[in-house]
Amino acid sequence: WSSQGDEVVLARTGLVEFDEVRVVVHLEAGELHLRLDHGYARARFETYAVELPLPLLRNRGREPFELAPDVLRETIAQRRLDGHEVRFHLLALHRRLAIPLAVPLLALLAWPLGRSRNGQGVTRGVLMAVGVGLAYYLLLRVGDHGLRELHWNPVVAAWLATALLVLPAVAAWHIRWSR
To answer: Which residues of 65-88 are buried (b: 16+ CB within 10 A; e: fewer)?
Structure first.
């Protein structure tokens, strides 16, 4: 691997060694694939060591979805103070609340859809429940698109799918229990 994407290393086994200033990956029984200006080269090796300086690893920008919730909140506060964009960080924070809330809503919606009287229509109900799950996923993608392309508020983008799930869940329970 390399930052330019012109080197790939494959190995059967490896060992990672690190200290305060570097990480060394010791690889054994592998191949090195190189993209060259004039073609391609492949070399087999018994041992190969890759040294990665820690500043290179520490300076890697982390995606908002990779951050722990407390670190994410601190990052949002710091980025606001520095005058940087926080929309994607807010989306990550609100998704951490919206998606777990959606799980019981999906279950509340799927249960009446999946149940039927006299064992008829079970397949239809299960397919409807799967369709609701797929619709939820697609609404999550709509929220992502709205944030990235249409500059929606991150709270709206994060909660759109979950908010739109509440109405069918309540309607399904009402229909199921009014029979």
So the answer is: eebeeeebeebbeeeeeeeeebeb
Tokens of 31: 């191949």
Tokens matching residue 167: 């109405």
Q: Is the pTM of this model over 0.90?
A: no
pLDDT tens column, 123-167: 777 787 788 889 999 999 999 999 999 999 999 999 999 999 888
Q: Which residues pair with 33 in a beta bridge?
A: 8, 42
Q: Which amino acid is at 118?
A: N
d(CA 154, CA 93): 9
Query: What is the Cα–Cα distance from 140 to 145, expressed in whole angstroms?
Result: 9
How many Å is the Cα radius of gyration of the chain? 25
